[in-house]
């Protein structure tokens, strides 16, 4: 027999009971407009593994440890996300000084504790801000003097001129990438959707944005057997297969690579540009790790430089390249600073791009100030140079040591192989899964790499991301780890990892 309350709920779901002053009342409510059945389906389709279920579980374990629950480890090591400062990296003194003075010029501009070069940088930035305040909106594309500093940095880096009008500041590189990708959408559905070529494995921002914009991912596999190189026959295969169900428009390249840690050779970049020309594609070059190159013989070549040097017949290729404050030796993820340089756009398209940026007003001006310091660091004749150099070299030196340590350690483990971490901040080792582990994963209804990573987390407190979150060739199993924990912590992490891996293999032998 149903109660009166149940009957009422059946009749009108929007009537709620409340008890007040000892009396039972009926309160008129309305049902939610949004449910997961009716929200934007493209948002529902988005996935972002780097902050996915394994990370939620890691946070729960941290709480359990805090509450005194006994575990075979005393802390969680978060090697799931490229968040440098969260893993212990210290901010660069000079960058913080400049941003601090920009933020509080009345008190700090005359403070003798702050060096003259930090003050002159801050003055220059503030001179470009409305009311000399970083609290004012900037031009939509960013503070003019900062764009000039970025252009000078690019000119100096590449040895070719850069026009500040081709640059816009953004809220982290993520925002710039989304802005350009949005511009490339066709506005149509079905097989007229824009096709976006992305590497597999990829940084999940790309698949998430493609899903959000209802575009069509065109997956090209990186060649794991050749240190994750980008092979032209594979690009050709993927675009040919995609033609029947979308309109290929964009080719995204991440160099140095995330999650794969490779650095593309100049020849490889030339071939990619040639391919983009032949296939009439817009190039998006994600170069946020341009300062993170460690391996002997590897060097960063910007797409802009290579394209410029390939000759006049390549100067019609539309190229957007992206940089960030979040990576390099700065690791200032929270400032959300970034820029995009877009070249060879049709002038009318540039107007439309600017309009779409204007609708967001501007990116955070403190993020822009941080970006300015990245492109305009102390020079050898300035007072802050020695400390700046020491801090920069410390971070990059440690990363280099850790890149080597991680590669060697994973390669020394049975049934594990890891390409050389040439750059960026990650390793993407492959686990040669024992058949019994594959069977067990099947029984549990989860991919084997997910099972591996969850067991690793539960038994050791190490949080890494399963390879399936980035994409991998079917039948292969990987995980991504950052190389960010401090050297001693990373050593400890790798020891915990080795013990776990040996136990895993003996369990499933
Ligand atoms: C390849 C790549 N591109 C873009 C981003 C986003 O950077 P930002 O913090 O500047 O948005 C990341 C962050 O990890 C990344 O790895």
Topology:
Blueprint: H1 4-11, E1 15-20, E2 23-28, H2 41-45, H3 53-66, E3 77-78, H4 93-103, H5 105-108, H6 116-127, H7 144-158, E4 167-171, H8 172-183, E5 194-200, H9 205-212, E6 216-221, H10 232-242, E7 247-254, H11 266-278, E8 282-286, H12 303-309, E9 319-324, E10 337-343, H13 347-358, H14 365-375, H15 385-411, E11 416-417, E12 426-427, E13 430-431, H16 435-444, H17 448-460, E14 462-463, E15 465-466, E16 477-482, H18 487-507
Helix pairs in contact: 3-17, 4-6, 4-14, 7-14, 8-9, 15-18, 17-18
Bound molecules: pyridoxal-5'-phosphate.
Pyridoxal-5'-phosphate is lined by residues 82, 172-174, 203, 205, 254, 258, 286, 288, 324, 326, 333, 338.
Note down, in words, how this protein is organized.
The chain has 509 residues and is of the alpha/beta class. The chain has three domains: 1-31, no CATH class; 45-88 and 393-507, Aspartate Aminotransferase, domain 1, CATH 3.90.1150.10; 140-375, Aspartate Aminotransferase, domain 2 (3-Layer(aba) Sandwich). It contains 18 helices and 16 strands. The protein has helices at residues 4-11, 41-45, 53-66, 93-103, 105-108, 116-127, 144-158, 172-183, 205-212, 232-242, 266-278, 303-309, 347-358, 365-375, 385-411, 435-444, 448-460, 487-507, and strands spanning 15-20, 23-28, 77-78, 167-171, 194-200, 216-221, 247-254, 282-286, 319-324, 337-343, 416-417, 426-427, 430-431, 462-463, 465-466, 477-482. The strands form four sheets. Strands 4-10-9-8-7-5-6 form a seven-stranded mixed β-sheet, sandwiched between helices. Strand 7, helix 11 and strand 8 form a beta-alpha-beta unit. Helix 7 (144-158) packs parallel to helix 14. The longest helix has 27 residues, at 385-411. It is globular and about 65 Å long. Residues 6-13 have low confidence and may be disordered. The structure holds pyridoxal-5'-phosphate. Pyridoxal-5'-phosphate is lined by residues 82, 172-174, 203, 205, 254, 258, 286, 288, 324, 326, 333, 338.
